[in-house]
Amino acid sequence: MQINMKARDAAALGRFWAEALGWGSDSEEFGTSLEPVGFAYPDPSAVCIDIIARPEPKTVKNRVHVDLATTSAAHQAELVGRLKDLGATPADVGQGDVPWTVMADPEGNEFCVLEPRPLYQGTGPIAAVVVDCADPRAMARFWGEAMDSTLHEVTDDYAIMRSAKDVGPYLEFVRTPDTKTVWNRVHLDICPYPGDDLSAEEARLRTLGATDPGIDQSDLHWTVLVDPEGNEFCLLTPR
After folding, report:
1. Helix (H, G, I), strand (E, B) or coil at 208
2. Edge-to-edge strands, sheet with 126-133
3. C-beta separation of 112 from 92 below 8 A
4. What is the three-state SS of 18-84?
5. Peptide bond connecting 42 to the previous residue in cis, omega within 30 degrees of 0
6. Domain CATH for 40
7. Which three-class secondary structure state does DSSP give residue 137?
């Protein structure tokens, strides 16, 4: 799994997130790719980020965001201050008085800097990738099978899963009343293992409940699908 972000200035947003996470970045044909220095796919200890250049502006709250991990109150305060220096701004998504800090990156993408939590010690800089949804149980079933993840906890309001090797960030689905109204500016991507057959993997995902988004894909080198709640995701070519 990795994260796909759309950006009007992919290079600038790539610089922000590379500095925020302490990762390396590479410029590619469609934008900027971010991953930890020395990362080798398919290591599940990190969820890498592709930032793709697109001209459309952000118009609604994203349905996918990242939570950043901290190890102490001092670390949380230091990280928030450093992110502000990099160009992040405070954000209000109706969170009220909470112990975590909600921020937005230079293109307005929401993210959270969490207070220290035992669950997220050892995840790396990204504690969790959080997805808004209507049915956490159904989403956990689909994505758990899609990515070979282990379900750690599930209720009617949220689901928490992690890689089958129990390393790296968590993937969390949180019930929200908001419905999806536009193409997701931030979404998940699935990266097949080296040597996997792309057609067979696409067929497997369709069997799990993935469907077509109804767009022209004739010029793409990857396959765009939607999950059972209509969230777009890309099935990338094996590395």
Report:
1. helix
2. 89-90, 101-104, 110-113, 64-68, 126-133, 170-175, 158-163, 149-154
3. no
4. HHHHCCEEEEECCEEEEECCCCCCCCCCCCCEEEEECCCCCCCCCCEEEEECCCCHHHHHHHHHHHH
5. yes
6. 3.10.180.10
7. helix
Range of the domain at 43: 2-235
For each of the chain's 239 residues, which pLDDT tens digit applies? 999 999 999 999 999 999 999 999 998 878 999 999 999 999 999 999 999 999 999 999 999 999 999 999 999 999 999 999 999 999 999 999 999 999 999 999 999 999 999 999 999 999 999 999 999 999 999 999 999 899 999 999 999 999 999 999 999 999 999 999 999 999 999 999 999 999 999 999 999 999 999 999 998 889 999 999 999 999 998 87
Domains held by the chain: number: 1
pTM beyond cutoff 0.90? yes
DSSP category for residue 203: H
Paired with 186 in beta bridges are 5
Tokens of 224: 């765009």
3-state percent breakdown (helix, strand, coil) of the chain, nearest 5: 20, 30, 45
